[in-house]
């Protein structure tokens, strides 16, 4: 009888330990937008892109379960601010956002750049030269906030691809986008757009709700460092060059 009670107690303790371990590693909800080549939809509804690939490998190595969803940026950003165990990527880390999230990364660098179209004014060699003109940017992005804080005249779109088409049509004078994302959108849509220059370089992260367990954030950051050291991140980058 005593042996049976001991075995039952051990079994109960083991089950309790498993339950605690499971509670410590909840399923994470990863939200993103269509922002190629970092995150973008692919055939069959699957998500792809450089940052998506990095995060898949990261969560696999860390042994943390997750789901991924593609949403409009402002909605994805708001959910990550409000819901436990949710994160949004690829998010530019800025002083204004610092306290709003817990941060995993950096995943990639992103050069903010100015693009011109067939109707763009000539003689714009640095950002200050564009102050008199209308610049298209992405609503809710760190880049648009940066330019707004500097006093530039902006026309904001809900999707960055719309800015590219507005630029070609002459509805905006210039387009501010990421060097890689802007070039990718222009090439994919065969648009006559040219890169003028880059004006700022930022780091993009997985931004997690501040209530996410700190142990999860630390584990992900530690695992990401390992991926950077063993060449896994560089190997993934080469797929998108």
Automatic annotation (TrEMBL):
Keyword entries, A-Z: Signal
Superkingdom classification of source: Bacteria
InterPro entries: Solute-binding_3/MltF_N
Keyword Ligase: no
Pfam families: SBP_bac_3
UniProt signal peptide: 1-23
Domain (Solute-binding protein family 3/N-terminal) ranges: 33-240
Keyword Signal among record annotations: yes
Classification via PANTHER family: PERIPLASMIC SUBSTRATE BINDING PROTEIN FAMILY 3 (PTHR38834), SOLUTE-BINDING PROTEIN FAMILY 3_N-TERMINAL DOMAIN-CONTAINING PROTEIN (PTHR38834:SF3)
Protein name: ABC transporter substrate-binding protein
Gene source species: Chromobacterium phragmitis
């Amino acid at each position: 009888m005593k042996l049976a009670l001991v075995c039952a107690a051990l079994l109960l303790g083991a089950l309790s330990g498993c339950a605690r371990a499971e509670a410590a590693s909840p399923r994470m909800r990863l939200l993103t937008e269509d922002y190629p080549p970092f995150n973008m939809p692919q055939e069959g509804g699957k998500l792809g892109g450089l940052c998506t690939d990095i995060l898949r490998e990261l969560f696999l190595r860390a042994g943390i379960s997750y789901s991924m969803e593609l949403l409009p940026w402002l909605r994805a950003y708001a959910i990550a601010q409000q819901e436990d165990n949710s994160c949004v990527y690829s998010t530019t880390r800025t002083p204004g956002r610092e306290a709003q999230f817990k941060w995993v990364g950096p995943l990639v660098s992103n050069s903010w750049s100015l693009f011109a179209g067939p109707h763009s004014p000539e003689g714009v060699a640095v950002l200050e030269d564009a102050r008199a003109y209308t610049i298209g940017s992405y609503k809710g992005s760190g880049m648009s906030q940066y330019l707004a804080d500097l006093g530039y005249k902006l026309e904001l779109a809900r999707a960055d691809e719309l800015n590219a088409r507005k630029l070609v049509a002459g509805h905006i004078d210039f387009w501010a986008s990421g060097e890689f994302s802007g070039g990718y959108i222009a090439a994919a849509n065969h648009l006559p757009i040219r890169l003028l220059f880059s004006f700022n370089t930022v780091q993009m992260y997985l931004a997690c709700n501040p209530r996410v367990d700190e142990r999860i954030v630390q584990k992900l950051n530690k695992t990401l460092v390992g991926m950077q050291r063993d060449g896994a991140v560089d190997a993934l980058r080469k797929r998108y060059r």
